[in-house]
Fold this sequence. Notes:
Layout: H1 3-11, H2 13-16, H3 27-40, E1 48-52, E2 69-77, E3 83-91, E4 100-108, H4 111-126
Antiparallel strand pairs: 1-4, 2-3, 3-4
Helix pairs in contact: 1-4
Amino acid sequence: MTSRVLINEASQASTLDPAFTLEGRSVGDILKDVNAAMQAAGIEAEEYDFSDMTRYLDAANRGWPTIPAWVACFPVCGTNEGFYVHIELIFRQEIPNLQRRLIGLAKCYTWENALQMAAFAATIFEGKDSWRYRT
């Protein structure tokens, strides 16, 4: 699989549901939409789709943040087998004690699939209108 294929498939992410929104929603609901969009595009995790990692936080921190944050989507090697795809929020340095938050985690067995999932998710969160979150 070439990077061109990854980019072309990822570019479909922003057109799957034009009503996709982040504000006022829980991270769990947002990730359900991301997983559904990936499946509709024919991209499936080989082990498990994006899980809501905010479920381990108190209820006040399970929603999409109202403070500006960048969304980072990237794969990493697992310690035993496979690859994990992270979705993390990266906050501005002015916010004390809150620099990064893992919000979603998926698992794949091939590097190519992990890259494809990360590219697709990144396009959903940081696509053509990515500057709208930079207030």
